[in-house]
Write a structure and sequence with these properties.
By secondary structure, this protein is α+β, with helices and mostly antiparallel strands. It is built from four helices and seven strands.
């Protein structure tokens, strides 16, 4: 397997939508309807490449196929409370990480996170922060295995969340 990494642009939006929706459908089939179930639209994906100074979508490709994506952004997501994190000068927030269901459990997630750390250091940033669902469908244990440290647990709008960070 030969992965390549790149930053998404407008022409990648349709493939990213398909990837995110495929992953959401897989989680919904496996765990039932939850916070992971909403459908992604092309309009929401197109916001990311339109703001490269503040937000970038990283893609992992196997040949021409996008097999994983994640987004790094400077703006704090609505469900994050910075009081739970280490004080740093510049933090990035990881959102919308997804690996195609056919490519899961093949180290793709671990590899795209490693690339995200490289991107974050070059941004530059001092930390990557994120939240994960505190549910069976949540990826908290995966982030912990990848070196992210749990910093807190909260419930936001009826969604139980676990906060994680990785200092760079």
């Amino acid at each position: 397997m030969k992965l390549t990494f790149s930053i998404a642009n407008e022409t990648d939006a349709g493939a990213i939508v398909a990837l995110r929706n495929s992953a959401a459908e897989g989680l919904t089939r496996k765990y039932g309807t939850g916070s992971w179930s909403p459908v992604t639209t092309e309009k929401s994906v197109l916001r990311d490449p339109a703001r490269p100074k503040f937000q970038r979508t990283l893609m992992a490709k196997e040949g021409p196929n996008i097999v994983a994506t994640l987004c790094l952004q400077t703006k704090k997501p609505w469900a994050i409370d910075v009081a739970y994190f280490t004080e740093v000068k510049r933090a990035l927030y990881l959102i919308n990480m997804v690996v195609h269901p056919d490519w899961q459990r093949k180290s793709i997630g671990r590899l795209i996170l490693k690339e995200a750390e490289t991107q974050a250091r070059n941004w530059p940033s001092d930390a990557i922060r994120l939240d994960a669902w505190d549910a069976k469908a949540g990826a908290g244990p995966f982030y912990a295995k990848c070196g992210f440290r749990e910093t807190g647990r909260v419930v936001y709008r009826n969604a139980p969340l676990i906060y994680y960070e990785k200092l760079l």
